[in-house]
Amino acid sequence: MNYLYFLYIEFLAKHNIPQLFGDITFYVIPITIIFIALLVVVLGLVLFERKLLGWFTQRKGPNRVGLWGLFQTIADAFKLLCKENITPNGVDKFLFNMAPLLMFTPALVVLCLIPFSAEFTFANFGTNSLIYVILAGLPVLSILIGGWASNNKYSLMGAMRNISQILAYELPIAFSLLGIVVLSSSMNLKEITLAQSSQYGIFGWYWLPCFIGFIIMFVSILAELNRCPFDLPEAESELICGYNTEYSGMRFALFYFGEYTLLFANALFLSVLFFGGYLSPFGKYLSPILFNGTLGNVLIYFEQAFWLVLKSFFVIFVIIWIRAVFPRMAAFDLLKFSWSILLPLSIFNLFLMVIIKFLTGGAYA
Amino acid sequence: MNINEFKNIFKDCEIEGEKIVVKYDLVKVVEFIKYNYNFDILKDITAVDNQTPGTELIYRLYSTENEENVLISITVGNEAESVSKIFDSAVADEKEIYDLFGVNFIGNDELERLYMPESWHGHPLRKNYKDDDERLRWNE
Amino acid sequence: MNETNLLKLNLGPQHPSTHGVLRLILELDGEKIVSCKPDVGYLHRGMEKMAEKLRYVQYLPLVDRIDYLAGFFYSELLCRNIEKALEVELSERVKAIRIIMLELNRIASHLLWIGAFLMDLGAVSPFFYAFREREMILKYFEKVTGQRMMNNYFVFGGVRRDIFDTSDIEEFLNILPSKIKDYERIIDRNPIFVQRTSEKGVLEPETALNGAITGVNLRASGINYDLRTKDSLYKGYEFKPVVMNEKDAYARYRARVLELTESAEIIKQALEQLKKYSDLNQTLIKPIGLILPEGEYYSEIEAPRGLASCYIKSKGENKPYRLKWRTGSYYSVNLLRKLLKGAYLNDAIAIAGSLDIILPEVDK
């Protein structure tokens, strides 16, 4: 943050504004930018998914609201805002209102941990990635609370099944992460990104040596997000309606958009770990070449964020593609798959990473 | 299936056209036909309300081996014997006939109304069913 | 097992799949289904009672609606009964046209079933791909008969209009094999699909025969009973009934996909018949003042969902004394009582979907 901080202080000093003002307000601007960008991205994601699903099935997606359907999600959010907030009889009011917040807030908080560019990380401490995994597991709590507080036996059963699914898929994520940590000798997400820059370019990123870990983490993230083919809790709507039956209006909107924010956050995480984070696939950054002087040096940071978001959108595209094609897995097969196949495979992957690190003598460091 | 051999065993049945008309012992006849001549599908049970003699039940059996059909007909009043222990498809057929014609099948454990709601009075497909009866309204 | 620990669960009558308004009252012990009771009657329209008050020609348009996906078959049953009673012979061209319409209807029904079955299981794309092919068939129906479904095309003694242009059907038959191969490629060996349908809902031949199951469900359990081989309308056509030996839901899926190819073969042969006999010369039975001679008449046909049959008892009037329909899905719903016992709740939808149940057939 140092370079930009000094630029900002210089700029303020030119206009005779005290440095204290700059100290306090320095963090407000990036936070606002990220918050607005996040909202735009999430709104765009919902539309992106609907359009893509339409194209996979030979239809156009939503294309009436606004040019090319761009305002569809805003219209949806507006509609949900105007709906009546029904609270059923006999629910625990505090918990009932708390559950959607617990879904949406961790997703926003977790974005602070991801390095968008070399200078734009808010929380840059040593065990970044571990804290990410912990915080991204908080929505489990919201599912449990939502299911319990709804005073509906079907919601409770659906919530419990959902929780057993999510818990089963947390461990493979942690073990795959450990594999990456072994390769890069650090748990800090920024250092993992930097460790992936080598003379091999794209093939120096971690998706190549850690391919098994990549597949395991990809599948586990699908299960964590309740996406197809693991979307049993959402889609068993004929039998058990899931944890968000009793929610309507803005609370449902928070659940819905919280899911998409989590999707975005997890895709960013995956890109950071396996696809080189904010590194450019060409090896060198394009902004200093295109623009000269200070503008070029400042735009590097935005370009890094752009590369990261681009990679995460590629991951999201594959996730939506999988949704369009696969049927749903049955509940017991889900759990069997995780405990008896994914977990041993991820432990094997860990050993493999240790061996690779030993053999290459730290060439991937 | 040998009709003459059948007539020798069950003496009080008559042959009318294609149908074998039976007066009593329907269950024994059906069981005999199923196990001795291998008629394994009961295609359906048709009920016709001929008013004065009663309701006529026509059982249509088919054999997949010999590829032939046989029809058994019996005229009943308000009660009949159930063949649901011999053929499982008769459970549904008899439910429908009870609902629409009012024939009570003895021996069928799951006898209840199928199409009409439970609280309906009357049996719709009978010839003496009054459509415009005041009692038979939905909002009763 | 403690009786008070059973959970009573309602499956339907509204649900996001296309079975119709079927309500299954399940009793669960944990995750296993202990007992299942189907509750039908939400769609009862009184078809049989209505027939006793309408003349035959007034009843004919209603008959398409007994099963909206296979309307031609029930029209054919009624026409066949009346032609049998009045001893009217159909000309060769009329027979060929009827077979083309019937088999196209069978293909359309099976295509919709593939889409709906996979949508029950969670895959959303094959539904749209199947509808893309079905759209071609429905457009052709609209061209010939004026309506996409519920066509009201067969009349007593023949058909309403002649077919002049068969290029659409030939194009459709040319594309169909590659589309079926597409479906096989994305669905057949998909491990999730195989896991959800293999060895689930195993239907033993004895249970099927006892429960009066006919059609594809019976043939997928190993018994070769296809009415088309004995039907007088299909005399002279060569085709092979599709019989599979594994008795599970996957076998029923495979059997229906293979039946698509068989139906396409029959249509090709019928198209050649059309070219041979170019003169329609149908002897239409005059519908006004139609009086059926006294007696009982019965005819049956192989509909997509099983054996369908029509029984008419006439007392020499212009209205039937009793008219009864026998449909295939009626007995499939009855079979669910036994088939879902002991199955897990997750598999219940896959099993119920694989039997191809359509509610209007059940609740005539």
In short:
The complex is a heterotrimer of chains A (365), B (140) and C (364). With 365 residues, chain A is mainly α. Chain A is built from 15 helices and no strands.
Q: How would you describe this protein?
A:
The complex is a heterotrimer of chains A (365), B (140) and C (364). Chain A is mainly alpha-helical. Chain A folds into 2 domains: 1-82, no CATH class; 92-360, no CATH class. Helices cover 68% and strands 0% of the residues of chain A. Chain A contains 15 helices and no strands. Chain A has helices at residues 2-14, 19-25, 28-56, 72-82, 93-110, 128-136, 139-149, 153-184, 189-195, 211-224, 232-235, 250-274, 287-290, 293-325, 331-360. Chain A is globular. In chain A, 40% of the residues are buried. The mean pLDDT of chain B is 85. Chain B has 140 residues and is of the alpha/beta class. Chain B has helices at 3-9, 26-37, 90-101, and strands spanning 14-16, 19-21, 41-50, 54-63, 68-76, 79-81, 104-106. In chain B, β1 (14-16) and β2 (19-21) form a beta hairpin. The longest helix of chain B is centred in the N-terminal third of the chain and has 12 residues, at 26-37. In chain B, the strands form 2 sheets. Chain B has a 5-stranded mixed β-sheet, with helices on one face. In chain B, strands 6-7 form a two-stranded parallel ribbon. Chain C is globular, with a radius of gyration of 21 Å. With 364 residues, chain C is α+β, with helices and mostly antiparallel strands. Chain C has 13 helices and 8 strands. Chain C has one domain: Cytochrome-c3 Hydrogenase, chain B (Orthogonal Bundle). The B-C interface holds B 17, 40-44, 46-49, 58, 64, 67, 87-89, 91-92, 100, 113-117, 124-125 and C 40-41, 44, 46, 48-49, 207, 209-212, 214, 223, 225, 230, 296, 300, 307, 309, 311, 313, 321-322, 324, 326, 330-331, 333-335, 337-338, 363.
